[in-house]
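In line with agreed milestones, work has continued on tokenised descriptions of protein folds. One protein thus recorded appears below exactly as we store it:

>
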Amino acid sequence: MCVFLLAMGCTKKEVLVSKEQMFSQAPKEGPDKVDIVLARDINDAVPCEDYGEGCLSAHRLKARELDFIAVEFSSQVLAQAAWPAA
């Protein structure tokens, strides 16, 4: 099971969901639509090493005018360990 950790632009709230849950709940159309923001080039990619051990991938998402980073981890334990205490 892989786990995504979302870092939101306006909060440090910890949100742990599976990749399947995240994509099934994300609106596909309308004003709340979630878009995956592709890197312009290799230097624009979100570096997985910024998120520590267990990071499998990191992606930029945009919903309305808010930018998010979704980080996929190999386990929930490693995802929680990567999140700094608030």
Summary: The first helix runs from residue 19 to 25. The chain has one domain: 3-82.
